[in-house]
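LAB NOTEBOOK - FOLDING QUEUE
OPERATOR: T.R.
BATCH SIZE: 2
PURPOSE: Compare the predicted structure-token outputs for two unrelated chains run back to back under identical settings.
PRIORITY: normal
REVIEWER: second-year student, initials M.K.

ITEM 1
FIELD SEQUENCE / FIELD STRUCTURE:
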Amino acid sequence: MQTKRISSLLYFCIVLLTCSNISSAQEPAFTWPTGKKMAISLSFDDARASQVDTGTALLDAYNVKATFYVQPPTVKNRLDGWKKAVTAGHEIGNHSISHPCSGNFLWSRNNALEDYSLRQMKNQLETANRQIEALLGVKPEVFAYPCGQTFVGRGKNTKSYIPVVAGIFISGRGWLAESANDPAFCDMAQLTGIEMDGKDFEELLPLIQSAQKNGQWLVLAGHEMGNNGPQTTRLAMLKKLIEYAQDPTNKIWIAPVGTIARYVNEHRKIAE
């Protein structure tokens, strides 16, 4: 009887150890550089004038590089400012030419994703890349989905254009997400983007602290850069966020989307 009890106990221990090893093997490990706990990317859409008129001055004062997802027609409105942003080391991403979104937005009814094909969308993105490179001398490697929408067509003919983005860019960023990205798991072609427009630093701090705890990559997304107004990332909030991120005790890596995407692709263990 005693021998049976010992055998059962040994069997239980072996099973427990085996399950533990399997569980550990299934958990992808990821390490940020130089002891960092997490990463933050600041990104802005639409090439709005306020970004180069007032926003980049704040970023440059702290030597922080952001990602700007631009459209060629709006780049032309502040071409000298955008050239200076490139010289300062900010990343230029692709945000299409005409910003197509669902026709349920009345302002996009004549440029509705429901009326696009995959071929048309691919042509728009590649043309935007060529035009941006001609204007600014850099070819975008990252993309942000206009309105955060990733489809073309309607009904049974609806298709995702995420594979198109994956074939052209190293990353594609969404909009109005609720969670940070897990660097060991996330799909680079559909990174989550969390809105920072209209928010104070205290509202974003819990998201940052959660990402610190879980070793995640927080991609923040905004539009205008100023003090007040619709779709505006507040400069006062940015100042607090940058100072928090640059405090060595918080162990945060703050860098453009493409910089972090390349690091993640080189260091994680899962295959794309």
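ITEM 2
FIELD SEQUENCE / FIELD STRUCTURE:
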Amino acid sequence: MNKNLKNLAIKAAQILEDKKGENVALYDLGDKSSLCDYVIVATATSAPHLNALEEEVSVKLKEDGFFKLNRDGSGSQIWRVSDYGGLILHLMTEEARAYYALDKMFEFADLIILPTVLKAVKKSAKKTVKKVAKKTAKKTTKKSSKKAVKKTTKKAVKKAAKKTKKTVKRTTKKTVKKTAKKAVKKNIKKGTK
């Protein structure tokens, strides 16, 4: 497989991305097909957009010395096919792409993720990780605070309970002693009378 061909395929897919082609999929067929090594399937939002995408790829690749060997669907407003040798480009409207389901046909192939898509995914992932980390930190802090408050409260309650228990015991003992003394004194007084 030719490295220049891979670079050509990535460049073509990137051109489509930059020109607002939707759901650009670059398939690496490798040795799995005798027809070509790479296939790009992209969605155009309208017939004029379809024309603009095809023209933009053609012009930019010509600048690098790559020319179409064949073209099909020039009269079609829903699907265009451009053959660059080891690279075949399918530009379709959303309806045509759903109807013909080329992506299912290429499920066996490796999907190459474009650098801009990868960058966007990484950026999105970083944002998501930061959000999750922030939420987790808040929850952990709240939980930790709640736990700390609970622990402190439990300790304080236990301490207060112990003190109260001791105080009650002391008071009870004193009260019992006083009551006993009074009762003894009463009994003594009764007995002397």
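REVIEWER COMMENT (ITEM 2): The mean pLDDT is 78.
FOLLOW-UP: none requested
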